[in-house]
Amino acid sequence: xxxWVMIKERSAFLSFFLILILLSVFLLIATWKNRTNxxxxxxxxxxxxxTIFIVASLISMxxxxxxxxxx
Length: 71
Prior knowledge:
Blueprint: H1 2-9, H2 11-33, H3 40-70
């Protein structure tokens, strides 16, 4: 029950990172579908950056929840 309260208190921070994850996934899917029209080096760079954003956002979300829960 306390975890749910922490999530509700930090919903603004979590929603920011959730939106960033959704935008990165959308960019990743769009790039993957049109990879024949885009140069390979640009495709690799976009996929790499999107993956980094997704992982960083997930780590940030976990940090926000765990830091709030332990304080």
